[in-house]
Amino acid sequence: MERWRCIFPKISEQQIEKFIKEYRGDCLVLSYSGEERQAIKESYLKNRGVVAKIMDDIIGVSYEDEDRIRDIIDEMIETKELKKAKGYVMESKKAKEKRRKAAKKEAEEAEKVLRKIEANEGTSDLKALIQKRQLDRGSFFDDLAAKYAQQPKAKKKKK
């Protein structure tokens, strides 16, 4: 496990938030730049403007970001960088509301799982330590038995 952690260090929430901020680029200026803008454009073209699929494709996006994503798409349509797609224009309010409800439900479930993981995090390290010691103890007794136990004598074959 130690070797694994040396190769792949534990990732914190702050690191994820920092990555998402860098990925989005400068969101304070209306001309959104960066990787996210390009990803939105590619996803829009790939999914023919279907917002639900676009939201699934973009890294670090939640239902709360939908208006921001739509603003970026609208800006690209205005500048003729993208053409209006049927899936984008014809989306119903019902579909948008259904997507928001599903996202809220998913967020609540994720919060429950996170609380459960945080509660067990301290005990999981302890469990791993106990299991490692039990394995070490078991191998120690096996070594003792191999060293000091009498070996059964080989039976002689009758002729």
From TrEMBL:
Q: Which residues form a coiled coil?
A: 93-120
Recorded protein name is: DnaJ homolog subfamily C member 9 (inferred by orthology to a human protein)
Q: Keyword Coiled coil, does the record have it? A: yes
Give start and end of each DNAJC9 HTH domain.
32-98
Q: Which InterPro entries match?
A: HTH_DNAJC9, J_domain-containing_protein
Give TM segment ranges.
none
UniProt lineage: Eukaryota, Metazoa, Ecdysozoa, Nematoda, Chromadorea
* MF (Gene Ontology): heat shock protein binding
Keywords in alphabetical order: Coiled coil
Q: Which Pfam families match?
A: HTH_DNAJC9 (PF23302)
GO annotation, cellular component aspect? cytoplasm; nucleus
